[in-house]
Amino acid sequence: MNTAGAAGPPLVVVFNVGAGRGQADEVRAALQAGCAEAGRELHLLEVQDPRQLARIAAEAVTQARQLGGVVVAAGGDGTINAVAQATLGSGCAFGVLPQGTFNYFSRTHGIPAGTQEALQVLLAGQHQPAQVGLVGDRIFLVNASLGLYPQLLEDREVWKRQFGRSRLVAFGAGLATLLRGHRSLRLRIEAEGQERELRTPTLFVGNNALQMERMGMPEATAIDAGELVAVALRPVGVLKMLGLLLRGAFGQLGVADELIHVATRQLTVRPGRRLGTLGAQRIKVATDGEIAWMRLPLQFRVSPQTLDLLRPPTPAPERKAVE
Questions:
Q1: Which domain holds residue 54?
Q2: pTM for the full model?
């Protein structure tokens, strides 16, 4: 059944009520009022338990396909990732109502942080393709990582539950993680037909040019050109690591000699000839902040499918236009 009318297709919204700034009632009211005023049909699927997010996202896609509607993710980067995972390849358009702390995906595409402003993009925005990264069968819109970075994310979530969501809390959590020390991984990395073995505390694969720009990485433009950017850190001591953390906060990581980085459409990661800390060749992998165990080898690549994203027609205000 297709109920899309002259006012526009229905919006099927997966709303993570626990995400972001704790304003679920205000967000819900704004959506209902805005859609009613525009004459648009609204189907609101609320997520009370994060463990139900994937199931509810799949239900939203099924409903949107039946109605000829748009699948919308209302939450932070983790919520957006889960809903995008269900939407990719479904034929449904995809929209975002950012409710998180960093909101890199929405910001890089010029989607406003305010609920009412972001809703106007859903009601009147243009369809444009958005690049998707893959590691195995899991997508990432912002980044994927293994080693120290997933540990930083896990510790950050603990701090958020104790002290609330803010950039200062995120920085403090990262500082505490680094001070506890870390071990390195031994990996074999193959990209662009070349293989190298390295020892690194973390491997980071970026799919968001805005985040890379904010860290000062010159390869940010490669993401605009359809590639991923892989960054590995050479083994360093705690003090050097703290210095790198500060450089990243001030957007100066690109000048750090301790980093190895490469732009590529595909990257294969295998265990090193000496497994080091990889044990049984299973490893924690973070995708847009969500962590899962995966088995090596891992293949990071640009998905052949894109998201049909609703976004403003003009270049994102926080991004440089790419010729």
A1: 11-131+305-311
A2: 0.83
